[in-house]
Amino acid sequence: MKRRVQLAFGSAIVILLVVGAVSYRGLFLSSESDRWVRHSHEVLENLDHLVADMERIESSDRGFALTGEVVYLESYRASAVSAGQDAAAVRDLTKDNPEQQLQLPALEEVMTQKMRLGDVVIGLRRTKGVGAAAEAIGSGRGQRIMADYLGLVSKIQNEELRLLSLRNVESNRRRAQTKAILLFGTVLGVLIAAGAGWIVSRDIVARGLAEEAFREGEERFRNLANNISQLAWMADEKGSIFWYNQRWFDYSGTTLEEMAGWGWQKIHHPDHVQRVVDKISQCFQNGEIWEDTFPLRDRDGNYRWFLSQAVPIRDSEGKVMRWFGTNTDISVRMEAERHLAQMESRYRGLLEAAPDAIVVVNPAGKIVLFNVQAEKQFGYIRDELVGQEVTNIIPEGFAERLIADGNRSASEALTQQIGAGIELSGRRKDGTEFPIEIMLSPLESTDGVLVTAAIRDITERRRSEEHLVKTVWELKRSNDELQQFAYVSSHDLQEPLRMVSSYTQLLAKRYKGRLDSDADEFIAFAVDGCNRMQGLIQDLLAYSRAGTSERELRKVPSESALRKALTNLRIMIKQSGAVVTHDALPTVRADETQLTQVFQNLVGNAIKYRRAEDPRVHVSAARNGGNEWTFSVGDNGLGIDPQYFERIFVLFQRLHGRDEFEGTGIGLAICKKIVERQGGRIWVESQPEKGSTFYFALPEIEGE
Predict the structure, then answer these.
(1) Fewer CB within 10 Å: N-end or C-end of the chain?
(2) Which has the closest alpha carbon to 36: 228, 216, 165, 222?
C-alpha cells in the first residue's frame, strides 16, 4: 500500500513536469502558427490593393478618354505606381509558396498589358479625340485583360485562403491542445496527489464487496430480462455485448457466438448499420443514454423496425460497469404513423387547395388548422390564430354550435349542422365584419372530434341578392306599366283610331266618284293608313303581352294548338290554294294560346311569302337529345338569304316592301319572344327561291 501511495505521488510530479514541458512547446508552436495567420492576412490585403489599383487605372484612363480632364491622368499615374509597389509586396510575401510565385509573372504581364492599353487610350484621346479613344475602349480588349487579371488574382487568393484556413485550424488546435494539456495535467496531478491514499485504501475493501453484490444483482437481472417481451442485451463498459436474452435468439435465429462483441451488426440493414455504429459508439464513449430506431432482420430474412434503448449501469462511484439495452418492435406503430402522416399530408394539401377559407377547430373551440385562403379572408397569418379561440374571427353563432347542451352530445349537436350552409358574420383582423356562409363537417382524431369549417365570403352574393330584389321590383313595376300601356293601347288609343277609320271609310263610300280623282286617291290612302295603324297597334299589343303573360305553363297537345291556328287561317289558306300537312305532334309544356299564335304566325308567313305555285306547308316535330322537342315549319316559298337570318326576328324588320306583302314586321319577333319565354329557342334554315324551314325547340315534359 505504501509503495502504491509513493508511486501515486511520483506519478503526479512526473505528470506535472511533462505537462510543463509540453505546454511550453505548445505555446511556442501556437505563437508560430499565429504569425503565419497574420502573414496570410497581409498577402490577401495586398492582393485586394492590387485589384483596387487596376480598377482605378481602368476608370482613370476611361475618365480621361471621355472628359479630357488632367485630374484623371494624375490618378492614372498614381495608381500605376501604387500597383507596382503592391505587386512587389506580393512577390516578397509569397516567397514561401512556389505555387503562388509561378503565378506572379503572368500577373505582372497582364498588368503591363493593361497599362499599355491605358497609355494607348490616353494617346488616342490626345491626338484623335473622344471618338478614337471610345472606339479603343469599346473593342473589349480592356475587359478581356481585366478578366484575365482578376482570374490570376483569384487563383493566388484562393491558394492563400486555403493556407489561411489550414493555418487557422492549426493555430486553434495548438492553442486548444495547450490549454487542455495544462488543465488536464494540473488537475490530474493534483487529484492523484490528493486522493491516492484514500482511493487505494478504500478500493481494497469496497471492490470485493461491490463485485460480489454486482454478480448477484446481475444474475437476478438476467433472469428478469429473459422474461420480458423485448429483445434484451448487455454489454461491457466499452460496448462489447456479452449477453442476449432468449427472445433475441428466437427472433434472429442466431447464437451467442455469432452475436458476441459487435456481431449484432450482421442482422442490421446495410443502409443503417454505419449510422447506428457511429451513434452507439459515441454514446458508449461518453456514458450517455442511447436511443435509436432501425430495422433488424428476423430468422426468415424479413426486416422489422425496432426502437432500441441502452442505459449505463454504474457502480457506487458513478463508473460505467455494464450497459443494458432493449429493442422494442415498433413496425406496426411506424406503419400507422406513416399512414397517418400520408393522410395528414393529403388532408393539408386539400385544405391549401380549397377555394374557400378552411378553419379546423377542436372541441374546446380553439383553432388548430388555418389555410391560406383563410389568411387572405380574415387578414391574419397562421401563427397569430392557431391555438386561439375561434371567436376571434367568428364572434357569435359558430362556437355555440360546438358546445353540447344538457340533452345532446357535441357530436349529436354537430350532426344536425352537417351539410347545411350557416350564414353568420366574420371579423377581420382590422375589426371589420362581413357576411360569411359556413359548411361544417366532423373529423375524427386522437384529440376527439375536430370540426372542419369551410367559410365563404358572401358579401358579393348579398349585394347580388339585394340587386336582384331591386331588379325584380323594377321589373314588376315595368310589367305593371306595360300592362297599363296595353290597356291604354287596347282602349284609349284604338278608340279614336276606329273613329277616324270609320269616317274615312264613310267618306270613301259616300263620295267616291263624286269628287275628282285626287280626292278618291287621298281618301283611299287615309283608309289604308288607318287599317295599317290599327294592325300595327294590335301587333304591338300582342308582342308586349307575349312576354308578360303570367299564366302557368301546362301540358299542351301541340297538335291541338296547330289545329286552332289553321282554323284562324282558313280564309287565307282557301284564297291562296295552300296545302298544309303535319306529322303526329307531341304534348309539350307551354301556354296553349301563345303556342297557337306561334304556329299561326309561322304558317301564315309560309303562305304569305309564296312563289307563283300553290303554297305547300309541312309541320313536324322530333325529339332532340332526349330533353326537348324541335318543331319545324317548312314551305316552298320565296326563301331567305342567310345574311338576313338574325335580322328577321328583330322588331319591325321587313325584307319586302308594303306594296309587295302586307304586314308590320312584328310577327317573327312575337314568335321569338313567346318561344324564349317558355324556355325554348327559334331559328331558320333557308335559301332564296328554295323555300324556308323555321324551327323552334321547347323543353320536354319531365318524366316522359
Answers:
(1) N
(2) 165
117-123 long-range contacts, Cβ below 8 Å, gap at least 24? 117/61, 117/141, 117/142, 117/145, 118/57, 118/58, 118/60, 118/61, 118/76, 118/80, 121/61, 121/62, 121/64, 121/65, 122/61, 122/64, 122/65, 122/73, 122/76
Nearest to 159 by CA among 47, 317, 75, 261: 47
Amino acid of residue 255: T
Task: Pull the grid cell for residue 288.
Answer: 450517455
Q: Could you tell me the CA-to-CA distances from 433 to 386, 394, 428, 461 in Å, in that order?
A: 20, 9, 6, 15
β-pairing, 422-427 with 290-297?
A: unpaired
Instruction: Burial-class residue 659 by CB neighbours within 10 Å (0-12, 13-18, 19+).
Output: exposed
Rounded Cα gap, residues 634 and 686, in angstroms: 9
Q: Please, are residues 87 and 108 in contact by the beta-carbon 8 Å criterion?
A: yes
Question: What is the pLDDT of the chain when averaged over all its residues?
Answer: 79
Are 357 and 374 in contact by the 8 Å Cβ rule? The answer is yes
DSSP three-state, residue 392: helix
Rounded to two decimals, the pTM is 0.33
Pairing of the two strands 616-624 and 579-582: parallel
Pairing of strands 554-557, 587-590: antiparallel
pLDDT score at 340: 57
Indicate if the pLDDT at residue 297 is higher than 80: yes
